[in-house]
């Protein structure tokens, strides 16, 4: 690991601690899978509001697999892109029921074979449920990793590969958790608080 990367991680650990936090509320692997699917182009806070009632209405994989498409669309409408999300959720839960005996699979290849599940969602499940070291590339990780010079790529899969090489395995999951907090509070997309940033000396875009 480069000295520069080591310093960045030490500062993030000092600022945010090293506890594993999942910002999406869930009580089971399938609930986290659905919540993560709903979080595409939507805030975790809004997803948590929607899933509070959603998981009381649909209490199992089977319940989602048998859900009425139009009704589910209305149930998840506040998360946006609800036509596609509802269709994928029903298809995904049917696959989990029929192919995996109702259990959310562990392996990356099996997860990404499910309807509506890409590498980001799969890695959220692998990291948070199965504690498999995984790099989750969301919008915060993509933006900030480029600003910090940890990658020069814009393709999420290439960024994932770069970070897996650059970061020690014990920080793969943790880095995402810390960067989400950092990206929401300091290094925001539109108006980053550069003067208040504790990583400004490592940022390619910081100008005094």
Overview of this protein structure:
- The protein has 208 residues and is mostly helical.
- The chain has two domains: 3-20 and 135-202, Helix-hairpin-Helix base-excision DNA repair enzymes (C-terminal) (Endonuclease Iii, domain 2, Orthogonal Bundle), CATH 1.10.1670.10; 29-128, Orthogonal Bundle (Endonuclease III, domain 1).
- It contains eleven helices and no strands.
- The chain has helices at residues 3-16, 29-38, 44-57, 61-65, 69-76, 82-100, 108-112, 119-128, 139-147, 156-166, 172-185.
- α1 (3-16) crosses α11, α2 runs antiparallel to α6 and α5 packs across α6 (82-100).
- The radius of gyration is 18 Å and the shape is elongated.
- The mean pLDDT is 96.
- It comes from [Clostridium] hylemonae DSM 15053.
- [4Fe-4S] cluster binds at residues 187, 194, 197, 203.
- GO terms for molecular function: 4 iron, 4 sulfur cluster binding; class I DNA-(apurinic or apyrimidinic site) endonuclease activity; DNA binding; DNA N-glycosylase activity; metal ion binding.
- Belongs to the Nth/MutY family.
- Its EC number is 4.2.99.18.
């Amino acid at each position: 690991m480069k000295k520069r990367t080591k310093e960045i991680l030490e500062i993030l650990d000092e600022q945010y601690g090293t506890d594993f936090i999942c910002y999406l509320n869930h009580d089971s692997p399938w609930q986290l899978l659905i919540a993560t699917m709903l979080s595409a182009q939507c805030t975790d806070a809004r997803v948590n509001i929607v899933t509070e009632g959603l998981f009381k209405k649909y209490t199992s994989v089977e319940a989602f697999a048998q859900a009425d498409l139009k009704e589910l669309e209305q149930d998840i409408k506040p998360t946006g892109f609800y036509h596609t999300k509802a269709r994928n959720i029903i298809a995904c839960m049917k696959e989990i029921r029929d192919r995996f005996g109702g259990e959310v699979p562990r392996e990356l290849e099996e997860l990404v074979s499910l309807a509506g599940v890409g590498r980001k969602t799969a890695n959220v499940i692998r990291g948070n449920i199965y504690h498999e070291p995984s790099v989750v590339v969301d919008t915060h990780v993509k933006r900030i990793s480029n600003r910090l010079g940890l990658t020069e790529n814009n393709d999420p899969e290439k960024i994932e590969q770069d970070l897996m090489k650059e970061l020690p395995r014990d920080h793969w999951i943790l880095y995402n958790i810390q960067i989400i907090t950092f990206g929401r509070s300091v290094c925001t997309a539109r108006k980053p608080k550069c003067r208040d940033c504790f990583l400004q000396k490592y940022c390619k875009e910081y100008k005094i």
